[in-house]
Design brief:
With about 650 residues, the protein is of the alpha+beta class. The protein contains six helices and 33 strands. The N and C termini lie far apart (about 80 Å).
């Protein structure tokens, strides 16, 4: 092999190595499943979603189950790339409708991916209540299965359990509907009147549809905008109504590109948590105040660089976009077995504690540190309670909470509490405990907290008895003075000066003189403010009148220049008219409005105005215009632009 061949071979291997090294990696295929909700009324529908991560499959079908009918299906495809790692997800959602009440089991089955692999789907259970025995939701309206079967605008309605259910229905099995692990919407997008999937729509997916009062309900919020629609967002989704409290949403949501019904969407998603402050069946719905822009219908010639002047679409569509509607059943916490120190904490929680220092003198403070970690409603978590102990004086604790994720349901809450010993010796700290309710096991949990003993030295302070006002013998031995309780010494032992008169202050003459002076100052200030406002308003009106007069002069000058065929006069007047409008908007003198200034403030506007400013500079420096310059067409465009640039 000669040197050239060897070099060529090495170069080929280098290119191949670089190509493989720079190619984004792809994770192994996995599968997840979801049935939402796992309990419905007869006449409602549930959604079964099969999601394949980093893989693809075709022809996925649910096994046949007697009493369950498949009303329709939808497919969703998502592709993301984070730090060079690509991932994709294929979600297929089946809308299933029961024909009778009872318990149904969808058996396990295997899915074969396109690369020949096998993924296993576990069995899923569905409980169907007899709708005749459950009160219907007053806000529910029937869906329209004929037009779009999988889409139910009212969502599943969850009603109270029947008599055979166990007491307490909150805290259902969370493994069946985890919004944090699935980005599936659960139904097809709604359809616009033109027959296409909706331009914008909002979807909420709570983790559970049964909860207890005060329990955090993890929820995914997804806002979809079709990619062929320009949009503008200046607000966050909000809860419709006051039945639920919601954690703050991040101002920077996660963004994904998804495909629904052969339409490309941008999906903004949040993970948050809600809670209900009272029991009952409550409708849950959110709304998004949003706006989207209709395409600009411009009939100008395609080669006219000034035809889309200022690049602003003519019509802005704004409105509240409602989400799907659900009903959440909220139970009261059980009274039986409720600990005396229970403060409303619900979740899966752990407690740790320590105390420092462990060697002090009587009256010196000790700091107790309590840390509660896990998943729960941290706003209800209070400091662990200490039992009453005459040897200790406890003070109000302070707290600090840190969250581990966006929904603000997982994290830790730390308490610091000062406590002071009243006597010396080896004193055990007061017994401490913390109680919470576990919605998974549906029972209260009390955690005893182990605290160390404290070695206390020194002695309690002694307060000398005050001398008797009746002239008692001052020779009483000091040893006979009663020892003070183990408290802080008083700041003063003598009484202060007494008030000579108890007459109300408003009966004093000086009080009314002072009030009159204050009223006079307020009136003077109001008069000065009114005069200043009137003067400023008059000045603003004069400025607006002068600007309108100057603008009218420039527009007349443009028309005169068009009639005379004077390109130089036309472009001088046109440019100055634009400068007048922008100067009024930005609070600048017209002479300060240059193309560079416009580009710094609004690049899109600068791109639209650049042909006008460039043409004006060219004619000014050359002293004339070439043949074929249509001043009449330029006048139409400039007047349209001036109208759009009207200051507020």
């Amino acid at each position: 092999m000669n040197a050239i061949s060897a070099l060529t071979c090495r170069a080929s291997w280098l290119i191949l190595w670089l190509a493989l090294g720079s190619a984004p990696s792809l994770a192994a295929a996995t599968i997840s499943q979801q049935i939402n909700p796992p309990e419905i009324n007869l006449g409602d529908s549930a959604n079964v979603t099969i999601t394949i991560q980093n893989g693809s499959a075709s022809g996925i079908q649910l096994p046949h189950v007697d009493g369950l009918e498949i009303a329709g299906s939808s497919t969703q495809i998502m592709n993301t790339s984070i730090n060079g790692v690509e991932s994709n997800a294929l979600s297929i959602t089946f809308a299933i409708e029961p024909t009778h009440a009872g318990d149904f089991t969808i058996p396990a089955f295997d899915v074969t991916t396109q690369d020949g692999g096998t993924l296993h789907v576990h069995e899923m259970k569905l409980h169907v209540l007899n709708s005749a025995t459950a009160p219907a939701s007053p806000t529910a309206t029937p869906a329209s299965p004929a037009s779009n079967p999988p889409f139910n605008p009212n969502g599943p309605v969850v009603m109270p359990p029947n008599s055979s259910s166990t007491a307490g229905t909150g805290g259902q099995d969370n493994s069946t509907a985890n919004p944090a692990d699935s980005s599936d919407t659960g139904f097809k997008p709604p359809i616009d009147p033109d027959g296409r999937p909706a331009k914008v729509f909002l979807v909420i997916t709570p983790k559970i549809t049964k909860a207890y009062v005060g329990e955090n309900i993890l929820m995914r919020v997804e806002f979809y905008i079709r990619n062929d629609v320009a949009h503008q967002q200046d607000s966050l989704p909000t809860i419709d109504g006051s039945d639920f409290l919601i954690n703050d949403l991040s101002i920077s949501p996660k963004q994904d590109n998804v495909s629904l019904m052969n339409e490309d969407y941008t999906c903004f998603s949040w993970i948050t948590a809600i809670e209900a402050p009272k029991s009952g069946d409550f409708p849950l719905q959110m709304e998004q105040d949003t706006c989207w822009l209709k395409p600009n219908q411009n009939n100008a010639a395609p080669n006219d660089p000034f035809g889309n002047m200022f690049g602003q679409p003519p019509e802005l569509v704004r409105g509240n976009i409602p989400s799907n509607r659900l009903v959440i059943h909220v139970d009261l916490l059980p009274e039986e077995g409720r600990p005396a120190n229970f403060t409303g904490a619900i979740g899966q929680l752990k407690v740790s504690a320590d105390a420092a220092p462990t060697d002090v003198e009587v009256g010196d403070p000790i700091t107790l540190h309590f840390t509660i970690t896990g998943e729960g409603n941290f706003s209800y978590i209070q400091c662990p309670s200490l039992t009453a102990d005459p040897n200790w004086k406890a003070y109000t604790p302070s707290s600090k909470v840190e969250f581990d994720e966006e929904s603000r349901t997982e994290g830790s809450k730390t308490f610091e509490q000062a406590i002071i010993p009243k006597k010396n010796g080896a004193l055990p700290l007061p017994a401490a405990s913390f109680s919470y309710f576990d919605p998974t096991t549906k029972q209260y949990v009390t955690v005893p907290i182990s605290l160390p003993s404290i070695n206390v030295t020194g002695s309690a302070p002694v307060v000398t008895a005050a001398a008797s006002s009746s002239g008692a013998d001052d020779s009483t031995p000091a040893a006979t003075a009663a020892p003070a309780a183990a408290e802080f010494l008083p700041n003063r032992s003598e009484a202060g000066a007494f008030q000579a008169s108890l007459a109300p202050v408003y009966q004093k003459p000086w009080f009314w003189v002072l009030q009159g002076g204050l009223v006079l100052v307020l009136l003077s200030g109001g008069v000065m403010t009114f005069l200043r406002t009137t003067t400023n308003t008059s000045e603003d009106r004069n400025k607006q009148a002068r600007r309108r007069h100057s603008l009218l002069q420039e527009e007349n000058a443009m028309s005169e220049a068009v009639r005379n065929g004077d390109a130089l006069a036309f472009f001088l007047a046109a440019r100055h008219a634009v400068q007048l409008q922008l100067g009024a908007q930005w609070g600048l003198t017209p002479e300060a409005i240059t193309l560079a200034e416009i580009r710094e403030r609004d690049p899109q506007l600068a791109a639209s105005l650049e042909p006008l400013f460039t043409q004006a500079d060219e004619i000014i420096y050359s002293g004339g215009a070439g043949d074929g310059l249509d001043l009449a067409q330029w006048e139409i465009r400039v007047r349209e632009g001036l109208h759009q640039l009207q200051p507020a």
